[in-house]
Design a protein that fits this description.
Number of helices: 6
Order of helices and strands: HHHEEHHH
Strand content: 5-15%
Helix content: 55-70%
Number of domains: 2
Structural class: mainly alpha
Low-confidence stretches: none
Shape: elongated
Distance between the termini: 37 Å
Mean pLDDT: 93
């Protein structure tokens, strides 16, 4: 999906070329078929090739993936996910990034009241 969002539309060959350590051609085709069945992407036929393009916005896909990750690894708990992220990357965050996170938490508190 990331490649399709970056390129806007792409053939299997273009997707393979954009991946740093690409799987096989057939593996990419299988993944594209699954994504199309789930209605995340669609295809157009151009010069006897399929050109794939995203149907779902990047933001909607991001939220869906995050929801799945929360449910799968954190028992649906945003608190556990944030705690893990901070544990893993806190020393890599700048003071400005920590301030922005604190502001987002404060805004969530205010909106929750």
């Amino acid at each position: 999906m990331d490649v399709l969002y970056r390129l806007d539309r792409a053939t299997v060959g273009e997707i393979l070329a954009a991946l740093p350590d690409p799987p096989s051609y057939s593996a990419v085709r299988a993944m594209l078929r699954i994504l199309e069945e789930k209605q995340h992407i669609t295809h157009e036929e151009k010069d006897l090739r399929y050109v794939y393009l995203p149907v779902v916005s990047r933001e909607k896909a991001r939220r869906s993936a995050l929801r799945h990750m929360l449910d799968t690894f954190f028992d649906g708990s945003p608190e556990q996910a944030v705690a893990t992220l901070l544990d893993v990357s806190a020393r890599n965050l700048s003071a400005e990034e920590l301030d922005r996170l604190a502001a987002l938490i404060q805004k969530a508190k205010e909106e929750g009241r």
